[in-house]
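User: Now give one protein:

AI:
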Amino acid sequence: MKSTSARALGLLLGYGADLMLGDPRRGHPVAGFGRLAAALERRTYRDSRAAGAGHTAVLVIGTVSAGIAAERVAHRSPIIRVALTAAATWAVLGGRSLRREANAVATRLAAGDLPGARRQITHLVGRDPATLDQAGIARACVESVAENTSDAVVAPLLWGAMAGVPGLLGYRAVNTLDAMIGHRSPRYARFGWAAARLDDAANLVPARLSAALAAGLAPTVGGSVRAARRAVRRDAGHHPSPNAGPVEAAFAGALGRTLGGVNVYGGTVEDRGTLGDGPAPRTTDIARAVRLSAAVGAGALAVAAGWAFSIGPRAR
């Protein structure tokens, strides 16, 4: 079996494992990486960009190197190569968990349990839940589903197709560091700068593929391809994130809803612009966003597996 065939098959199997099993409840490798990063931060933290860049480089390069070493060990056995890629794909994907958390929010909103919905939404977003009413929670949930479809499903698959196990692990290291230190708090404004910029670069192509897939698959949730594309062209630039903007705009257009607006993060108010047309999301729109997320994930898998197969002849 050629290495590219093993890579494609491993991506398919890993995606299937995430679809059926979701994240492991205990001993998750990403959680272990987070603990390692937090322990290292206690030694490396300085209020400077240089210190943050060094911290980020050590962790990302170390993770990529581990992936390279693992692939070299597995090089002579096609079965081990497939199993290794499948295990790494399963470890870094978060599609099932994302959909489970979103559905849990929708269930609490449908039951009129606003306090429970506020607690549940903190599993998906960093904004202050105390300020959110039912409509605000629905909007936050739909926006999180959109952004995390790109971050937790599409991007890992593309990096896995392009660079195998090192790409899968390296991407997840970058994305995890961005979540840990890439936000604009007083502590991390400088220290987390490198992690945030690296995450922006790593998601540049995946976010645009996610937006294109969401627009193209809009009819699966009763939406319009044209409306989704129009929202991306017109509104993506309103969002402060260069990657979340296109994806959230595409979901807004596909769902026929308006996303974006003012959010509160730890007392800091941030205006994320207006994305899409139509009314604000309702509780029932969370289920539609989840269906669109699943369709985008399946489309990204097809692209990634096809890419992994096709790069073989060129690489040789």
